[in-house]
């Protein structure tokens, strides 16, 4: 069985999450003869030949990156390869409700586009502190850590996928 963990990442956060998911699937899948590949989406010609896809993108402007959506539409939709999606958002847990709603709406849209069986939202990381006006617009507190990733949640999600295979 071949699994592809494919990601797009601007500042490395989603890439690190994808690699961790790949490690977990590799470790859990060893006895089930599961072969795991982790790669950026721009190097993937076709998803045919894989038995399952785990696909990840950061959220920018309350949406996944446009290249990710294009990838889903062009290469995943209609491929009949089962897929799970994760997106990485700094604001989803801690920002204003209006942003949470917008992110969830975009996720549902891309989940449908890809025909994905599950879609998860992980907290992300910022490269530097937000200026006060941005904190006001987004509704985030001043003392929020730059790296909000919850590795326990990420690992549990990957373990759940491995168990279902
Ligand atoms: C230019 C830019 C725009 C962003 N816009 C959003 C956003 O609209 N909503 C959100 O929740 N996070 C936003 N973020 C935060 C990141 O998406 C998130 O923290 C993620 O970890 C970044 O992933 P990456 O390192 O793989 O690119 C933004 C970050 C940057 C740099």
Secondary-structure map with pairings?
Elements: E1 2-7, H1 13-29, E2 35-40, E3 52-60, E4 63-64, H2 66-76, E5 83-89, H3 97-114, E6 118-123, H4 132-138, H5 151-164
Parallel strand pairs: 1-2, 1-3, 3-5, 5-6
Antiparallel strand pairs: 3-4
Helix pairs in contact: 1-5
Bound molecules: flavin mononucleotide.
Flavin mononucleotide (FMN) is lined by residues 9-14, 58-62, 88-92, 124-126.
Describe the structure.
The protein is α/β, with parallel strands linked by helices and 165 residues long. It has a single domain, classed as 3-Layer(aba) Sandwich (Rossmann fold), CATH 3.40.50. It is 41% helix and 22% strand. It has 5 helices and 6 strands; from the N terminus they run βαβββαβαβαα. Strands 1, 2, 3, 4, 5 and 6 form a 6-stranded mixed beta sheet that branches. β5, α3 (97-114) and β6 form a beta-alpha-beta unit. Bound molecules: flavin mononucleotide (FMN). Flavin mononucleotide binds at residues 9-14, 58-62, 88-92, 124-126.
Give a quick summary of the entry.
The protein is of the alpha/beta class. The chain has a single domain, classed as Flavodoxin domain (Rossmann fold, 3-Layer(aba) Sandwich), CATH 3.40.50.
Q: What's the end-to-end separation, in Å?
A: 9 Å
| CATH T-level fold name | Rossmann fold
Strand content: 15-25%
Q: Helix count, per DSSP?
A: 5
Mean pLDDT: 96
Enumerate the spans where pLDDT stays under 50 for 5 or more consecutive residues. none
């Amino acid at each position: 069985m071949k699994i592809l963990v494919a990601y797009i990442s601007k500042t490395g956060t989603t890439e690190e999450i994808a690699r961790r998911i790949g490690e977990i699937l590799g470790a859990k899948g060893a006895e089930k003869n599961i072969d795991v590949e982790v790669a950026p989406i721009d190097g993937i010609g076709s998803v045919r030949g894989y038995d399952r896809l785990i696909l990840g993108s950061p959220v920018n402007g309350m949406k996944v990156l446009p290249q990710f959506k294009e990838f889903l539409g062009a290469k995943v939709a209609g491929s009949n390869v089962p897929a799970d999606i994760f997106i990485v958002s700094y604001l989803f847990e801690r920002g204003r409700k209006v942003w949470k709603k917008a992110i969830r709406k975009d996720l549902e849209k891309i989940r449908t586009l890809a025909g994905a069986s599950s879609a998860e939202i992980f907290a992300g990381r910022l490269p530097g502190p937000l200026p006060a006006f941005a904190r006001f617009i987004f509704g985030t507190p001043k003392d929020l850590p730059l790296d909000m990733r919850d590795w326990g949640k990420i690992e549990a999600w990957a373990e759940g996928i491995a168990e279902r295979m």
